[in-house]
UniProtKB/TrEMBL annotation:
Subcellular location: Periplasm
Entry annotated with the keyword Signal: yes
Domain Solute-binding protein family, residue spans: 61-437
Coiled coil: none
Protein origin, superkingdom: Bacteria
Name of protein: ABC transporter substrate-binding protein
InterPro entries attached to this UniProt entry: Peptide/Ni-bd, SBP_5, SBP_5_dom
Family: Belongs to the bacterial solute-binding protein 5 family.
Source species: Reyranella humidisoli
CDD domains: PBP2_NikA_DppA_OppA_like_16
Length: 515
């Protein structure tokens, strides 16, 4: 009670209003299983609600996340990991070694680096509720890299969920991460909702990349579906939303004029465009026809047609990224110049018979929308017939997993993009995996690429690793798994009353405050 002017008046507590961060993500979320698909929107969803054993910090160094301590035996065959205290799933159950082991086993079936690691694993076992071991058949240097990769990370789920067959999607979405998924409010095409996990115990270190203390500083995060970019920018400027994850590059000048909005580059490693062959069916079951596309395509047409401003893109004939530690143009110096005569010659050698090629076209992601039409034009100039089939990105994501014939609902070519941080070496770069049925969609199958990738994994001498990369690129030019169509950067558009965005290869929403 407070005495004022001789009167006694009560103190009225004012309840603090929950803080809601509204974000326009780069895509609508229609699939919720981050192990079942590699789509980045599903990966981003994974980082909201799940936690990881290890993670990359802001300098791409591997740091422990759920793990407290770990050690490797003197013979380098037994790795022992102990989980930190306080790890709890959203349903109140503690995270145990059994949960981790089940999650790792399911992940290792679908992820290309997980497959490589698991080929070297003799046994994985629980020592106690918080300690587990990986026992290897032979020493390898990829254990921590596999467990800490930014995309395709083994998100830890309850054992009962992780025991879902890898070929099926999970139906329960319980993690131990800093946010809780509100399944009852999820409306594909409208919004996806997450609320702060009040029981999450972050690490003591400052947030850095995907590592450190994941402190949720807002009560609620809503991913709002606004497919039209101009409409999204209008909503941002009006204060109806707080962040656009990936605004259209030609709208940057408009965004820069608004004093209440900033353009912030959080993914400083950029992205790479990917043109992916389906090798199960003609014509791209024949390496000559795949080589033909490396000659028919050129990177600048794609980059100009989508990104537009050379400030934000790089023409690059290095598979493992220009500016990266394994940059080399070996095998590709004469490619990507739209040499249509050479492309037609190779199509003739490959026996291309004029059958229409099914090219999947994403219509709702601006960074991809113009890519397929440009590819169609270049492919036709090389002498191919192209059946471009248009659909939204999430429909494309579901369709690309199908092994049906192209004229029965399958596909021949699709175009996507990948993070530069996932493209720096042959281990994290899933598009170079050629492990047949276990490979990324398109299912390339080549024993020599597989051998070279495994040799890279086991080699510790950097000079020898670079030699292996050159051999790998030369082989990939001979039997292409995909074409890479240049690099680009983008920025988030963020209202200035929002602060704390983390420099990271994946957009994350912990550490962010809203005034």
């Amino acid at each position: 009670m407070i005495a004022a002017l001789g009167l006694t008046v009560p103190v009225v507590a004012v309840a603090q209003q929950p803080t809601t961060l509204r974000v326009v993500a780069h895509s609508d979320l229609k699939i919720l299983d981050p192990i079942w698909t590699t789509a980045f929107i599903v990966r981003n969803h994974g980082y909201m609600i799940y936690d990881t054993l290890f993670a990359l910090d802001g300098e791409l160094k591997i740091k422990p996340q759920m793990v407290d301590t770990w050690k490797m035996s003197d013979d380098k065959l037994t790795w022992t990991f102990t989980l930190r205290d306080g790890l709890e799933f959203h349903d109140g159950q503690p995270v145990t070694s059994e949960d981790v082991i089940a999650s790792l086993k399911r992940w290792a079936v679908r992820d290309s680096l997980g497959q490589l690691l698991w080929s070297k694993v003799a046994e994985v076992k629980a020592v106690d509720a918080k300690t587990f071991q990986l026992v290897l058949k032979s020493p390898t240097g990829i254990v921590l890299q596999a467990l800490g990769k930014p995309s395709g990370n083994p998100f830890i789920m309850p054992k009962r969920v992780a025991e879902t067959p890898p070929s099926d999607q999970i139906k329960e979405f319980v993690g131990s991460g800093p946010f809780i998924f509100k399944a009852d409010e999820w409306k594909p095409g409208d919004k996806t909702v997450y609320v702060k996990n009040p029981k999450y115990k972050p690490r003591a270190e400052p947030a850095s990349g995907l590592a450190g203390g994941k402190v949720a500083k807002v009560d609620r995060v809503e991913w709002v579906a606004i497919p039209d970019q101009q409409t999204a920018v209008n909503a941002l400027q009006a204060g109806e939303i707080d962040i656009i994850e990936s605004p259209q590059h030609d709208l940057y000048p408009l965004i820069k004029k608004d004093r209440n909005v900033s353009l912030v580059t959080t993914n400083k490693w950029g992205n790479q465009y990917i043109y992916r062959f389906n090798q199960l069916f003609k014509p791209f079951d024949n390496a000559k026809n795949r080589q033909a596309m490396l000659y028919a395509l050129n990177q600048k047409d794609f980059l100009n047609g989508v990104i537009g401003d050379p400030e934000f893109y790089t023409v690059c004939k290095a598979m493992f990224m220009c500016g990266g530690p394994y940059e080399t143009t070996a095998g590709f110096a004469d490619k990507y110049e739209s040499d249509f005569a050479k492309a037609r010659q190779l199509l003739a050698e490959g026996g291309y018979d004029n059958t229409p090629v099914v090219l999947l076209h994403s219509t709702d992601l601006y960074v991809l929308t113009n890519m397929a039409p440009i590819a169609k034009s270049l492919m036709e100039k090389a002498g191919m017939k192209v059946d471009m089939q248009s659909m939204d990105w999430q429909t494309l994501v579901a369709r690309r997993a199908k092994k049906d014939a192209p004229d029965k609902g399958g596909w021949n070519v699709l175009i996507t993009s990948t993070s530069g941080a996932d493209s720096l070496d042959p281990l994290t770069y899933s598009f170079i995996s050629a492990s047949c049925d276990k490979a990324w969609f398109g299912w390339p199958c080549d024993a020599e690429i597989t051998r070279l990738r495994e040799a890279f994994a086991d080699e510790t001498d950097e000079a020898k690793r670079k030699e292996i990369v050159e051999k790998l690129q030369l082989r990939a030019a001979e039997v292409p798994t995909h074409a890479f169509l240049g690099q680009y950067n983008n920025a988030m558009a963020i209202r200035k009353n929002v602060s704390g965005s983390v420099v990271s290869p994946v957009p994350v929403f912990w550490n962010i405050e809203k005034k």
